[in-house]
Fold this sequence. Notes:
This protein is mainly alpha-helical. It contains 3 helices and no strands.
Amino acid sequence: MNSWIDLDALWKIVVIGLLAGAGLPALFAVGLRAVSLPGRDRGSPATEAGGDRILGSNPLGLAAGVVCFAVVLAAIAWGIYSVVAGT
């Protein structure tokens, strides 16, 4: 153990950095993918006429996307609160 390097603090910084740095954008991407899952009505007139898709046609995908977005927003709010509170 080196007296200059605090390994306990170092692993905490690495874990939080990975979660916030790569985890939150990945979770946001998973939420976007979940929201864009196709539903049961694949041949509806809205998808055939203009080529546009109605997002949120899969209830399970919509629920998973909402959970992912809520976690990302909670993490952002917690970060802002931590900065403002000075902790």
